[in-house]
Design brief:
single chain, about 160 residues, alpha+beta, about 20% helix, about 30% strand, globular
């Protein structure tokens, strides 16, 4: 398993844009080619921008894993292709600590594995794969889609 260090300059509080407020995550990558690391890092920036609760409650996150998916003409395309038209996306799994200290209790996120996909054309954005993960993206307790034009960077993924 490879690791890439993703230093994300993310405001920790809504409305705060201090450049010194940075969240540092080491993202574990599985099956990601070295040539894809830059795209994975940029997709992580999109995720943490669109789901600011991940940065705000970073102290309660144990780890982040990333995988890449590229649909080949003869390959399987899942709901990401059916619902969003994506042929390339970066998947993120985020492990929340079993004993959270900062995440609001009503989110009931302790111990959860949160799932997100960042995909590009023709509908760029973040797919929130699990209801609990929605809290971190400001959409409440639901799965769904968060538009993000900057997710078009994922179009640069190559096998």
């Amino acid at each position: 398993m490879r690791l890439i260090a993703a230093t994300l300059a993310i405001a920790l509080l809504a409305g705060c844009s201090e450049p010194s407020n940075k969240v540092h995550f080491t993202i574990q990558t599985e099956g990601v080619a070295d040539s894809q690391n830059a795209v994975v890092s940029k997709a992580a920036e999109v995720l943490f921008d669109r789901c600011p609760g991940l940065a705000q409650y970073a102290q309660d996150i144990e780890w982040v894993k990333a995988t890449t998916s590229i649909v080949t003409p003869d390959g399987y395309a899942g709901y990401q292709t059916r619902d969003y038209g994506w042929t390339r996306w970066v998947g993120f799994e985020v492990k929340v600590a079993d004993d959270t200290r900062h995440i609001p209790g009503e989110w009931r996120a302790s111990g959860h594995h949160l799932f997100y996909n960042v995909g590009s054309s023709p509908k760029p954005g973040v797919d929130v794969g699990k209801a609990t993960a929605g809290w971190f993206c400001g959409i409440g307790h639901k799965s769904g889609f968060v538009p993000a034009q900057e997710a078009v960077v994922v179009d640069q993924l190559r096998a």
